[in-house]
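Here comes a specimen:
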Amino acid sequence: MLLRLFMVCEKAPRWRLVFCGAIANVRGMQDFEGIRPYRDDEVRAVIARLAADRDLNHAVCVFLTPRLVRHMPSVAHLLMRWYLQWQSRRFTTVKDFQGFLSGYMARLVADTIAELSVDGVERLDPDQAYLFISNHRDIFMDAGLVNFVIRRRGHETARSAVGDNLLSRQFAADLMRLNKSFVIERSASGTRAVYSAMKRTSEYIRHSLAEGHSVWIAQREGRAKDGFDRTDPALVKMLALAYRSEQHKLSEVVKRMRIVPVAISYELDPCDRLKAHELFVADRDGSYAKPADEDLRSIVEGMTGFKGRVHLHFAPPLEGEFVDAEAVARAIDQEIVTGLRVFPTQLQAARELGVAAQCEAPEPLPEVEAQFAERFAACPADERPYLLAGYANLLKNRAEFIAG
């Protein structure tokens, strides 16, 4: 019925277009139900479900009480269940929950990052909503660090895009949506379903920005496992779908979205060996079949693994004349790639591969050098070139954009 109404509206007078637009907005709001973050009135029920989840109980035990869960698992799980139930009484809003998580995020930063540095965020207005588009190296930490930084600078945390492939377990879906994540429907199949999912995502992002909520999304689907950070033009086309009926110039759409490219630089990648193994197998066999628990393992290793120094660079909101989506993607890449910081690990990897590299980098940290050597030694010989390339390709990235 609604579809027929929309088809009639295409050739209708202006008053009928306004009426159809209002109905479309209602329909759009209903469409968001399956992908939106949880609201405050849903918090208590979701928290109660999380407190009773066995998988989450075990994961928290491993994180908070690793020794106890190793030697006395039953006691650890019982204590953790009581702890989660006790903590859950404190949460009545999403902000309460995020405030609780921010303490653990601060602990992760203190325990796994030698030094966190930031530039450019001071140019952003805390009362303004932005679309943060960053390079994608880590499933959880990329968006987590962006939110950690902007929250400490007086901004509200951003709504973060997460693929439905990461939400196969109920507790993971609950945690993500409780933490202001919205769902990207990557599992959609068929041309019509894929287009519908893309349009829903685009409209939800526009809806969020209009409501004053910033949004974070990665520059491409999947992490840059080979070290090349590139924005997929299809992402830009998807973002513009929500503005399509208004016939704005692409440059105006980009300006309205207030796109802020963010470059996230890691001195060490805790998942470097997992990425190297995947790339090696894909080259050897022509494809890679990901084990069922690999994404969860990558999330845990990315969170808890030592990262050395980490730098976040926030570029100014994107402006300019853009003829097509490829031009917008190129402009985002220019800001991200040139904003990435070179660390001694990238220079060392380039030397190991015999690649000439002349870039300035901070002095090496002994603990990082030891960790990098240990990770390289533990990597199978056939996979080592892929591990090194994951670090060294940053220099090729930068050379291309700086020269151009």
User: Anything to note?
Assistant: The two ends are 53 Å apart (CA to CA). Residues 76 and 86 are 15 Å apart (CA to CA). The beta strands are 115-119, 131-134, 159-163, 181-184, 215-218, 259-266, 309-314. The chain has 18 helices and seven strands.
